[in-house]
Write a structure and sequence with these properties.
three-stranded antiparallel β-sheet, hpI Integrase, Chain A, DNA polymerase, domain 1, 14 helices
Length: 384
């Protein structure tokens, strides 16, 4: 309706209760106001971010003719599937970290593309049925070659988006919630390189790209995740005390941890110029889009390297170059196995890896079972 506006009632005083309201400019009256979720934070920017999302949601409802108040005239046109998904994603955004939001965004994009392809785009969101959702997800799985695990993961994202739509009364109930998940094929995890392949890979990287060899060595010897390595600053390296500090915002479990530096990584780091504490330990000299020589990056530099850049390099050097089909990340697993073989206890390895539970480390170090079986075979039981 032309005479309706959505406004935000806010204040710099965090004791003041914020709300978003629909205002009738003709009668100069508030016809509906909502404060849900706006006053849970004492941070001004967080409140304003939540208020802006709520404002956009209400504006979309008004534009689509959804009834906000019994006194409003209800139109026959309501929100269609793709618009509703965009709304749900926008509402969900405030609850997600940047990486997680990217996953949700991809799932919604895949879903919307399939909705258009299957000619469901004119369906009103409140008329959407389980059949439509299953058809869309099956179509995506077929086109993208999803495994059962990938299908279920993305279905989880979509289910969460639909929960937002129920919360904002665009649907009566979540039609995705009871859809049966796909069967997941269990795998043995990462395929580990043999010791012979390991030596071949190390020699090849050392001779082909020494800086990348250092990156790979940090992962294998110290058990630091590739993404964490790429976010390390020179100031995080303490050569004197032989430790690396993983900052809380960079670690997987959002907590600080310190990793001991073993040889030969210690010798490698001693040769590097760590004088600029704000440089990335494994970085690049220029922003993306600029050309530079191979020996100028994967070493101390002012700009960070993307995770997928490291993955592409591994494919170029090892999978395509040597024909050895193992992933770079598998050397974190192999490092755990080799540390166990060398006599390091599981608890210490778990601390180094930053795992909250030793059971997680056991998944990495499959050599633990061979040790246990060997010990179990020594047990003598009385004959009966």
């Amino acid at each position: 309706m032309k005479n309706l506006e959505v406004r935000i009632s806010s204040s710099t005083d965090m004791n003041y209760r914020w709300y978003v309201y629909v205002y009738n400019t003709e009668t100069q009256k508030i016809i509906k106001k909502i404060s849900k979720g706006l006053n849970s934070s004492d941070d001004y920017s967080e409140r304003m971010f939540a208020a802006e999302i709520l404002k956009k949601t209400l504006e979309l409802k008004l534009k689509s003719g959804i009834e906000l108040n019994p006194t409003l005239k209800k139109k026959t046109e309501v929100v269609k599937v793709c618009d509703a998904l965009d709304m749900g994603l926008e509402k969900k955004k405030s609850d997600l970290k940047k990486g997680s939001h990217g996953n949700y965004e991809c799932a919604v994009r895949f879903f919307k593309d399939s909705v258009v392809k299957l000619k469901f785009s004119n369906i009103k969101i409140h008329e959407l049925e389980r059949f439509h959702v299953k058809s869309v997800m099956d179509n995506i799985q077929k086109e993208r070659g999803w495994s059962g695990k990938e299908y279920n993961k993305n279905m989880g994202y979509i289910q969460s988006i639909f929960s937002e739509l129920v919360e904002w009364e665009l649907m009566k109930f979540n039609i995705v919630r009871d859809i049966k998940p796909k069967k997941e094929i269990k795998t043995e995890g990462y395929i580990l390189a043999t010791d012979k392949e390991h030596k071949k890979i190390s020699k090849h990287l050392y001779n082909t790209d020494y800086n990348y060899y250092v990156f790979y060595s940090i992962e294998y010897y110290l058990g630091i995740r590739p993404k964490e390595i790429l976010l390390l600053k020179c100031g995080d390296i303490n050569i004197e005390h032989k430790i690396i500090r993983i900052a809380s915002e960079d670690s997987k479990d959002n907590s600080y941890r310190y990793v001991p530096i073993f040889e030969p990584v210690l010798s490698m780091l001693k040769k590097m110029d760590l004088s600029n504490k704000n440089y990335y330990l494994i970085g690049r000299p220029k922003p993306y889009g600029c050309r530079f020589f191979k020996n100028e990056y994967f070493c101390p530099n002012p700009y960070s390297i993307k995770r997928d850049t490291a993955t592409r390099k591994w494919k170029e050097y090892i999978i395509d170059g040597l024909g050895i089909n193992v992933k770079c990340y598998s050397f974190k697993h192999k490092g755990a196995n080799d540390k166990l073989k060398a006599g390091m206890d599981l608890k210490t390895i778990s601390e180094i890896f930053g795992h909250s539970d030793e059971k997680i480390t056991e998944l990495y170090a499959n050599h633990i079972n061979s040790i246990r079986f060997k010990e179990a075979s020594k047990i003598k039981l009385e004959e009966y």
